[in-house]
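User: I'm writing a short report section on ligand binding and want a predicted complex to refer to. Could you take this sequence and guanosine-5'-monophosphate and write out the structure as tokens? A short remark afterwards would be nice.
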Amino acid sequence: MEKKQELYAGKAKSVFATDNEDFVILSFRDDTSAFDGERIEQLSRKGEVNNKFNAFIMEYLAKAGIPTHFEKLLNGTESLVKNMNMIPVECVVRNVASGSLVRRLGVEDGMELSPPIFEFFLKNDALHDPMVNEFHIETFGWASADSVIKMKELTFKVNAELKKLFADAGLILVDYKLEFGLFKGDVILGDEFSPDGCRLWDAETREKLDKDRFRQGLGGVIEAYEEVARRIGVPL
Ligand code: 5GP
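Assistant: Sure. The structure tokens for the complex follow:
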């Protein structure tokens, strides 16, 4: 498939057209952003690590029956994916309290959440991704009521699969963010799953092995991503 013009440049990935309108190329860059794009730095190897990490997870989820946009790895930093209409909301599931939940509600960081908590956020950097609910999504036409139900169902299915995958590798899946889109009328998983969009802690030491290392200036960001990849068996 031939790579054509750039359609969109996000904070960490770019999207390119192909000669087939059903497919686009996701290009993972080394750019790393935090605080709604207020801080951006280049982290060497990140594009490649996240591209391969995401490919592994998307293929793992597809085998578990979760529909995704992922088609195939093209090279170190690029993957071929289905060309979806993205739904502009982020779906977050939390198994352990951390991050914005702790700041918002004053609960203890590290508290186990049973049952897990589901939250929707609007994708809008200028508004700092505000939390929204089903009513906002339907009334403002960001997605249909059916799509909302499907996103929730798939996000929890992903939780069951990935909690186990990471637990078997000695890791706690604290929380994560997913994005969905519509492809030929079906809701399917899009964007990426990588340590950029989830929290992963070592089960023994509770060491952070995700993007919080960047957000909190802890260093060793890519080394931590590579450690997670090695533990779950991502070929890097
Ligand atoms: P929080 O709401 O605590 O900031 O984030 C919850 C989870 O979703 C974390 O794993 C965080 O990495 C992920 N997340 C939320 N919003 C974004 C975002 O805009 N970009 C990325 N990469 N991850 C996000």
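A remark for your report: The domain at 85-220 is CATH 3.30.470.20 (D-amino Acid Aminotransferase; Chain A, domain 1). The mean pLDDT is 98.
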